[in-house]
């Protein structure tokens, strides 16, 4: 029997991603703070559809907006590790990466009473040490890499990559990788960012993006017996009015197409069971 899964995941970053890139003046901070408003709208929508989702929250955000994050927990959604700050692990020295990772684990434990099952790196850029840290702290899955579009797989560690030599693959681990894609992420489609060095235009037509998101699910339905897609949203992005409308349309259309909505934790459990069968 075919089974096609949609994971709705939310990176609840608020201002942390802007500040990690040096954008700490009042306007970008306020732009991120809108995420608290957006989160409330999203939770209302998910509640009306009876859908559970996965939320990845930096430790600094948990500590800054405890009531907003507590609502996520109270309404039955998964809380995943998303760093202490939103600085990408690949930018951090080893000791600071380890310190921030552990600090975020303890913050989630204080919030939920248990450590996180899943990890998603800030900006989807892990270091060559990150997989070891994820395993050390008991996480069962990662959601930071892009080696497939609609199937989890077991992550490797210790690959050796050089521009002038064939790649040497490292060993497989017991960590399930739940793949993501920038094309299934709201941020690059919608967010206008202007800095001293670059301009990211964003501001795409929302209905055109919705067509892409639905088409990826349709392709998965046609080509796989069992598959999953991880959609990634940011409350300060998707929480704007016209984008909330396409999120609602996405949920309703995927439902019509027979989607099963699961958290990423539920997906990794199902994938492990299938792999062991």
Automatic annotation (TrEMBL):
PROSITE patterns: NODB. CDD domains: CE4_HpPgdA_like. It comes from the Bacteria. InterPro entries: Glyco_hydro/deAcase_b/a-brl, NODB_dom, PgdA-like. Is involved in generating a small heat-stable compound (Nod), an acylated oligomer of N-acetylglucosamine, that stimulates mitosis in various plant protoplasts. SUPFAM superfamilies: Glycoside hydrolase/deacetylase (SSF88713). Residues 26-262 form the NodB homology domain. This is Chitooligosaccharide deacetylase. PANTHER family: POLYSACCHARIDE DEACETYLASE FAMILY PROTEIN (AFU_ORTHOLOGUE AFUA_6G05030). It holds the Pfam family Polysacc_deac_1. Belongs to the polysaccharide deacetylase family.
């Amino acid at each position: 029997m075919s089974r096609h899964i949609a994971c709705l995941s939310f990176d609840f970053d608020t201002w942390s991603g802007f500040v990690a890139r040096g954008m700490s003046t009042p306007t970008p901070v306020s732009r991120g703070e809108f995420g608290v408003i957006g989160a409330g709208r999203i939770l209302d929508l998910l509640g009306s559809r009876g859908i559970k989702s996965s939320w990845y929250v930096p430790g600094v955000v948990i500590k800054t907006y405890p009531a907003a994050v507590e609502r996520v927990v109270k309404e039955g959604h998964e809380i995943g590790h998303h760093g202490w700050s939103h600085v990408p692990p690949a930018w951090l020295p080893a000791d600071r990466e380890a310190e921030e990772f552990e600090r975020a684990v303890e913050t989630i434990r204080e919030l939920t009473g248990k450590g996180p099952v899943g990890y998603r790196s800030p900006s989807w850029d892990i270091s060559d040490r990150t997989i070891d840290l994820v395993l050390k702290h008991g996480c069962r899955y990662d959601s930071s890499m892009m080696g497939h579009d609609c199937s989890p797989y077991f992550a490797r560690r210790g690959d050796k990559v050089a521009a002038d030599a064939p790649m040497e693959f490292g060993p497989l681990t017991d960590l399930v990788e739940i793949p993501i894609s920038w094309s299934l992420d709201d941020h690059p489609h919608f967010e206008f960012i202007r800095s001293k060095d670059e301009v990211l235009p964003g501001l795409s037509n929302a209905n055109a993006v919705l067509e892409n998101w639905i088409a990826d699910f349709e392709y998965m339905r046609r080509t796989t017996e069992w598959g999953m897609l991880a959609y990634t949203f940011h409350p300060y992005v998707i929480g704007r009015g016209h984008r909330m409308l396409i999120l609602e349309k996405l949920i309703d259309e995927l439902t019509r197409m027979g989607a099963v909505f699961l958290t990423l934790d539920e997906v990794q459990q199902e994938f492990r069971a299938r792999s062991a069968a």
